[in-house]
Amino acid sequence: MGVGGWHWNDAWVFVSAVIAERLERDRAMHAALPVSGATLADLLAAADFLHHSVPSREDLEESVRRLSGAGLITVDDDMFEVAPAGEQLWRTRPFSGLSSAVMTLQAQLNRGPEPGDADWTLDEQAYAAALREYRLRLADGR
To answer: What letter does residue 31 receive in the DSSP assignment?
Structure first.
């Protein structure tokens, strides 16, 4: 836990949400589709890209509750989006590149709002389905 109460996992999930949402936004724009946020499978893929592992269901649920409760991300119908306050946090972070983005973001979080506690749950089936989807994409080279 950091000085401000934020965990490393919170920063990892937040940076993963930023990456996943931006990738989905770019795909939607190139295909002339509406922008709708990132799926749970997209978030898991970004987390794996950043840390070469996927957060557990429990860790993900806890971090999403904390981030969403602080107004940094939104989750609607299992679509993740970075909220305006999260965009501001991301844009005002010291630029450090992706290799140290999680540590940089944890420091930023600890200087910002306190962690929240949104009412959001991730059931085992939804997590397992997203993990399966991500693994299928990985096997297909997507």
So the answer is: T
